[in-house]
Every structure is written in structure tokens, then in C-alpha cells.
Amino acid sequence: MPFCASCGGKVQTGEKFCGSCGAPIKETGKTGDAPLPTGSDSASEAVVGVIPHLVQATGKLKSKGWILVSTNQRILLSQFSASMMQEALALSKTRKKGFLGNILAGRVLLAPDVVEYCRRFFKMSPEQILAETPGNIALNFSGIRRAYIEYELDEKDEDSSIRTDRYWLNLLSDQGEYRYVFDADPQDMKVLRDALGDRVHGEGRAKAMKPNF
Questions:
Q1: Are residues 150 and 83 in the same domain?
Q2: Given the DSSP bridges, would you call strands 47-59 and 62-71 parallel, antiparallel or unpaired?
Q3: What integer pLDDT is reported at residue 68 of this predicted model?
Q4: CA distance readout (Å), 204 to 52, 96, 112, 169, 172
Q5: Which residue, of 61, 115, 174, 186, is most buried by count of CB atoms within 10 Å of its CB?
Q6: Is residue 19 assigned to a domain?
Q7: Residues 172, 89: Cα–Cα separation, whole Å
Q8: Do 24 and 54 share a domain, yes or no?
Q9: What pLDDT digit, counting tens, does each position of 134-170 carry?
Q10: Is 210 inside any structural domain?
Q11: Same domain, 105 and 188
Q12: Distance of CA 62 to the CA centre of its chain
């Protein structure tokens, strides 16, 4: 059974659109798992950077978590699955933290908890990361035409004093377009620029939003 390259959901053979997110399904039915560039050696491919907080809208009030993993040859997009969330929650119980953190440990995932969990990717091979969840995606650097960052500020509700803002990461590749909300802090921007150089357009936040790896 093929998987949607946009959200990773299962689709029936022959379907034209994903039943989960509505994205068009390529005729090949592949997940977007790009092979290594010609002449590359899989033994020399290694993880060099991680962006731990990507959120993809999948429908009305629904979203899905992803993690961007940069190797020295490809961008890997890994789904933050329910089982991974449970592992991260369990790990959060073992970490020393402040009073509030101890209360929330094992119940709510905080940004430092996700960062700590994502350290595991540096110990995994790229192929292990791709095989971990059906629908994970690999994009060769050579096939990524542009990555651009959009800033969006929502006008506050007339009944609220709260205004929300968000940064969008848009990856345009030969395999399609991938769009996520992300932190866009200096750490995230460094991972993108180290991987893609001047193909990254737009600016992120001036202040870091989460701990360093």
C-alpha cells in the first residue's frame, strides 16, 4: 500500500488524492524516498543537523509533527509519530528540571524535551531514520530548488488581546513542495543554510526559541 508524500498517510492504489490531507498522489505511489546522489557512498552519509519542531496542517484544526534531519547529502523529513511522542515523554521523566518542569514531566512535552529526544538521530544511520515510519521522506540536496521562509502575523481577535505569529518553511523540490510551521530561530536557520546555502530565502527570528543540541 502506498503512502502520501505530503502527510505520510496510507492511500489505496489508484487513488488520485490523499484521503487525510487532500494532496495529489503521484502515479508512482512512492513516499518521496530519494536515493543517494550518483557516486555517493551510503557509508559516508551522516547526520549533521536537526530541526526538531515542524508542524504540518493536515485538515481543519488538525496537524502533524515532523522533524527535519540534515545529513551531509540529503534532507530527511521524519514524522514525529505517537510512539515517538510517548518515548519522548518517558525520557522527560528522567531529566532534571525546575519545579514546573518536574510537575509537567511525563505529561506535557516541552521544547527541551523534544530537543533532548532528537539527539537520538545523531546516533542513527540515515536509512534507519527513513525506515522508522512509513511515509518518511528523503530529498537530495541537488533536487531541492529553494527553501523560503514566510512570516505570518494573525490579527488579534476582537475579544482577545493575544496576537499570534508563525514562520513557514517551504521546501520546493523536484519531488514536490513541502510546507511546515517551524520556530525559525537561529539554530534552525543555521541547519538550513549549512545544507542549502544561498537557496535559503527569507529571515527567521532574531532570538533562539529552544536549547542547543
A1: yes
A2: antiparallel
A3: 98
A4: 15, 30, 20, 10, 18
A5: 115
A6: yes
A7: 33
A8: no
A9: 999 999 999 999 999 999 987 666 666 676 889 999 9
A10: no
A11: yes
A12: 16
pLDDT of residue 107: 64
**Do both 6 and 90 map to the same domain?**
no
**Are 103 and 189 members of one domain?**
yes
Number of domains in the chain: 2
Residues 55, 92 within the same domain = yes
58 and 144 in a single domain? The answer is yes
Please name which of 11, 6, 16 lies closest in space to residue 57, comparing C-alpha atoms.
6
Question: What range does the domain containing 192 cover?
Answer: 48-201
Asked if 72 and 46 count as a contact pair (C-beta separation under 8 A), the reply is yes
Could you tell me if 136 and 79 are in contact, meaning their C-beta atoms sit under 8 angstroms apart?
yes
Asked whether 180 and 66 are in contact (CB, 8 A), the reply is yes
Q: What SS3 string covers the chain?
A: CCECCCCCCECCCCCCECCCCCCECCCCCCCCECCCCCCCCHHHCCEEEEEEEEEEEEECCEEEEEEEEEECCEEEEEECCHHHHHHHHHHHCCCCCCHHHHHHCCCCCCHHHHHHHHHHHHHCCHHHHHHHCCCCEEEEHHHEEEEEEEEEECCCCCCCCCCCEEEEEEEEECCEEEEEEECCCHHHHHHHHHHHHHHEECCCCCCCCCCCC
Which residues in the chain land under pLDDT 50?
1, 28-31
pLDDT in tens, 23-39: 776 553 344 567 777 66
C-alpha span between 30 and 157 (Å, rounded): 42
207 within a domain of the structure (yes/no): no
